[in-house]
Amino acid sequence: MKKIGTARILGEGSRVTYDIDEVKSAHNIVSELIQKELKKFPSPDTIDFNLDDSEKANRVRNLLIALDEHRRSVIIRLVSILEIGIHDYCKALQFELELSLSYSDLKGNILEQFKDYTQKAINLNLPFDKENWKSIKEIFELRHLIVHHDGYLVGFNNKVFNRKKQILELAKKYNFLILEDEELAIDLSENTCDQVAEIAMEFCNIIYPAAIDHITSIVGDTSYEDDVEGPF
């Protein structure tokens, strides 16, 4: 079988870094538009939304909801990009090294599978003891809270999120608030989205060059070729 060039799948993070940059650009545009619209109205801090049912108050309320939903969608999208990237990354390594074992054959969630696969099956030396890997696990945790618990630490049935303590710690690190209401909802900030994007990009800048160096050391330099078979 004719090998596919490593640069085609793994070079410069494949599509992953491009997709992260796209999300960052779109995030900046949408945030700027909503913030610009908010400036046309009184500051939200001056409005009692429980008492004020005026058209202006409702408009401000809806803009704040739109901003919160947008920020949540950015976190979900960024982590989804990483999930797809990890899948393609492992499949590319499996193909290049002609391994029968797939990362999905291993136990655990996708991060646990990725770690075990690269360490034990690929023998790829990635810095799992460094801060970036810890941060990757944290942003996956944050995405899990948003997707599966609607951003609430306490559910409507009073069921407490089983990793509430960790989320409270993340709130300090990633600059988001825990609203002091019955459900303890998260309130993401502009900085939260920027930090998650930076973590995702740093992760790519670590794992992709390491993969190319590793493959090159084993099978030699593989150049980009158009008409070759691949794992996808």
Based on Cα principal axes, name the global outline.
Answer: elongated
Order of helices and strands: HHHHHHEEH
Helicity level, as a percent range? 55-70%
| Main beta-sheet strand count, sense and barrel state | 2 strands, antiparallel
Number of strands: 2
Indicate the radius of gyration in whole angstroms.
21 Å
Commentary on this structure:
The protein has 232 residues and is mostly helical. It is built from seven helices and two strands; from the N terminus they run H-H-H-H-H-H-E-E-H. It has helices spanning 6-9, 16-38, 55-96, 110-121, 131-149, 164-173, 190-219, and strands at residues 177-178, 186-187. It has a two-stranded antiparallel ribbon. A hairpin with a 7-residue loop joins strand 1 (177-178) and strand 2. Helix 5 (131-149) crosses helix 7 (190-219). It is elongated and about 70 Å long. The two termini are 14 Å apart. The model is unreliable at 1-5 and 224-228 (pLDDT under 50).
